[in-house]
From TrEMBL:
Signal peptide stretch: 1-21
UniProt source species: Vitis vinifera
Gene assigned in the entry: CRK29_19
Stretches that traverse the bilayer: 277-301
Protein name stated in the entry: Cysteine-rich receptor-like protein kinase 29
SUPFAM superfamilies, per the entry: Protein kinase-like (PK-like)
Length: 672
């Protein structure tokens, strides 16, 4: 069924994939309630436990250990995929032992999942205790053909494998079956080997019942509880899948005839049994995992609600929105790119294919052998800054999917080379059209409005709806790419930073970003909140409406600075004079609304600026009253060291536009 070249390709990319699998967990669950201190007994017991796992797991693929006596004991467990070699297992467990430390830096309960192994530790003793709580899910965004028939196949295969695993000594099962359209569906399930067979089957069936809420109809899925995990995929990304036994799901007996399924499962689609069990069983990771699941569900529901509200408001929403949220790609075949393939695709990164350059790398257009167009961002070699941003970007972006964010396809890490592969967008970036009088007429008012709304959605997702809350820090016209329908996608998350819920204010030593778009508190004092993106968004709105840059040295003193000009026009009741002459016909109310929101976003005081969700609300809802903006960002700023006119936008050259990145450092008298 599978051709030799395709198979080779799979195996090669599998090998490449494995090398990256050790860089980061595919999933993690960190307890949120108790922490240990840096040099505590717990910490040294944890070190000992992790070292013991590294020493003992590889030979059999499974180990548990307990370190320390009495109060600060640490119990830990590691499990490798059953079919891999001891040396692969060793590599993975070593990576997990250090990875869990960085993923969950001081939690007393933690678990990480890697492609080939998982590792768990806790201050509680959990060996021999089955935990049915869903702790982590991951899935491929691609849809399987004929989803109804496919879902039946997936569940049948998972049920068969669940019973098979329970009966096997190593508590795992692997298999494949026929899927619609002559495709093959592969499955793998396993449990930690400390639990008995019936508990293992029950745990796997509980995970199977979670398919309904996680990954129905998706090309691939991975669901884990602390003690077991199920995986299905239509790509054979693991070697064992290629030779896995064929499971004839068509003749699998009805569910009721299998005694092990009784406590957990109702008929397909009924998840209630699994929920009951989860409560019944004593759980260790419960708090962390429940929080995680609740956050995931909460975000998904919030999004659905918001999308419903928006519908009709702008008319831009589509059915796929819900689905784009919270998805992670596990179609590993495309995830890691071969350097040779990228060299070929870009003609050895030749100048003719250059699309642009940013602060730490150059972007090229590439065409893969199969004709697919990609954008390849090659980072400046040897630049530690670039590397840092790189790992940041890969880690974050792979987890983020939204139609107003540029899609990351994968990356390449070979030797000194750090390369990112993105979707290629036909129409370049917003500044290419907006600031060129011969092209700006292509952007009529409906298109500009669509761009404003799209950027707002993308930012809202970053700030409030994504699993990782992210401050972009460099929102500007050249970072807004346009697809063939002129829909905006936010690019360059290299500056994005995680920020935790409880920390609303961050101070950062290294100031990144682009002057002119920079909120004053950030430019001057390095004070970072999501409101700095709101500020930049406001500047962007004014640029989109006026068709001019935030700073234009060719204009006279009075009009150079867009913000000052806009404020003056607003005060004099002449704000409509700001509107670009090439914008075509437009609704005055709509334009006015956008300008007002833009002005609100650029206010000097952080607390006066709206959040992205209230900005979104004002933009999409005509009945909301927009308050009058107060002082703008750079008004009367004392000792204005980074006023916009010191900035970069004095040159039309894209290349220079971000020269300011990382170039200034502020010392903070009372850093954290
Ligand atoms: C913790 O241990 C490290 C190295 O063992 C040491 O450098 C550091 O000062 C210790 N910190 C505290 C708070 O004891
Ligand atoms: C792990 O193995 C190394 C090398 O054999 C040994 O030095 C170390 O003591 C072992 N650690 C534990 C905790 O068993
Ligand atoms: C460790 O835990 C404390 C809470 O006790 C938390 O405030 C702190 O940020 C944590 N440190 C790290 C590095 O996560
Ligand atoms: C765990 O359960 C198995 C049987 O299921 C038993 O043989 C073993 O002694 C138990 N281990 C612990 C530490 O309770
Ligand atoms: C599946 O394979 C059969 C025989 O190999 C072929 O006749 C049929 O057209 C294929 N169906 C699809 C949807 O490719
Ligand atoms: C799983 O499928 C295989 C092959 O179709 C079959 O032999 C086996 O009995 C099934 N196992 C269970 C528990 O349903």
């Amino acid at each position: 069924m599978m051709s030799i070249p395709l198979l080779c390709c799979c195996l090669i990319s599998l090998a490449a994939y494995l090398s990256l699998a050790y860089e980061d967990p595919r999933g993690q669950s960190c307890g949120e309630t108790t922490y240990y201190a840096p040099n505590s007994t717990f910490s040294s017991n944890l070190d000992l436990a992790l070292e013991t796992l590294s020493n003992t797991t590889a030979s059999t693929g499974f180990a548990t250990t307990t370190a320390g006596d009495s109060s600060q004991t640490v119990t830990a467990l590691a499990l490798c995929r059953a079919t891999i070699t001891p040396s692969d297992c060793q590599l993975c467990v070593d990576a997990a032992a250090s990875g869990v430390r960085s993923a969950c830096p001081n939690q007393t309960v933690a678990q990480v999942w890697y492609t080939l192994c998982m590792l768990r530790y806790s201050g509680y003793y959990f060996v021999n205790k089955t935990d049915y709580t869903i702790a982590f899910t991951l899935y491929d965004t691609r849809h399987a053909p004929d989803p109804d028939a496919y879902d039946v196949k997936v569940k049948m295969l998972m049920r068969n494998l669940s019973s098979t695993a329970g009966a096997s000594e190593k508590r795992y099962a692997v298999g494949r079956t026929a899927a619609p359209e002559n495709l093959t569906l592969y499955g793998y399930v396993d449990c930690t080997r400390d639990i008995d067979g019936d508990s293992c089957s029950g745990c796997l069936l509980a995970a199977t019942s979670a398919i309904n809420s996680c990954c129905l109809g998706q090309w691939a899925g991975w669901i884990a509880t602390p003690t077991c995990n199920i995986q299905f995929n239509m790509d054979p990304v693991h070697e064992d899948w290629v030779n896995g036994p064929y499971v004839n799901t068509d003749t699998t007996p009805a569910l009721a005839s299998s005694p092990t399924t009784e406590p957990v499962m109702g008929p397909a689609g009924n998840g209630a049994g699994g929920g009951g069990l989860a409560i019944k069983i004593s759980v260790i990771l419960t708090v962390g995992t429940v929080v995680l699941v609740a956050v995931v569900l909460g975000v998904a529901m919030k999004w659905r609600k918001r999308e419903r509200v928006e519908k009709g408001g702008s008319g831009i929403s589509d059915e796929d929105n819900d689905q784009e949220i919270m998805r992670e790609r596990i179609g590993t075949r495309n995830f890691i790119y071969d350097l040779d393939a990228l060299v070929a695709a870009t003609d050895n990164f030749c100048l003719a294919n250059r699309l642009g350059a940013g602060g730490f790398g150059t972007v090229y257009k590439g065409i893969m052998e199969n004709g697919e167009e990609i954008a390849v961002k090659k980072l400046t070699p040897g630049s530690t800054q670039g590397r840092e941003e790189f790992s940041n970007e890969v880690r974050l972006l792979l987890k983020l999917q939204h139609r107003n964010l540029v899609r990351l396809f994968g990356c390449c890490v070979e030797g000194e080379n750090r390369v990112l592969v993105y979707e290629y967008l036909q129409n370049k970036s917003l500044n290419y059209f907006l600031f060129d009088k011969s092209k700006s007429a292509l952007l009529d008012w409906p298109k500009r409005y669509n761009i404003i709304m799209g950027v707002a959605r993308g930012l809202l997702y970053l700030h409030e709806d994504s699993q990782l809350r992210i401050i972009h820090r460099d929102i500007k016209a050249s970072n807004i790419l346009l697809d063939e329908g002129m829909n905006p996608k936010i690019a360059d998350f290299g500056l994005a930073r995680l920020f935790k819920d409880e920390q609303t204010h961050h101070r950062t030593r290294r100031i990144a970003g682009t002057f002119g778009y920079m909120a004053p508190e950030y430019a001057i004092r390095g004070f970072m909140t999501a409101k700095i993106d709101v500020f930049s968004f406001g500047v962007l709105i004014l640029e989109i409406i006026s068709g001019r840059k935030n700073y234009d040295p060719q204009l006279n003193e009075q009009n150079r600075e867009l913000l000052k000009l806009a404020w003056r026009l607003e005060q004099e009741g002449r704000i409509m004079e700001l509107v670009d002459a090439t914008i075509g016909s437009f609704s005055q109310d709509n334009v006015l609304k956008c300008v007002r929101v833009g002005l609100l976003c650029c206010q000097q005081l952080t607390q006066d600026r709206p959040t992205m969700s209230s900005a979104m609300l004002m933009l999409s809802n005509d009945s909301v009253t927009i308050p009058v903006a107060g002082r703008h960002g750079y008004q009367d700023t004392p000792c204005d060291p980074v006023a916009p006119h010191d900035s970069i936008n004095t040159s039309a050259d894209l290349e220079n536009e971000s020269f300011s990145k990382n170039s200034i450092t502020f010392s903070l008298p009372n850093g954290r």
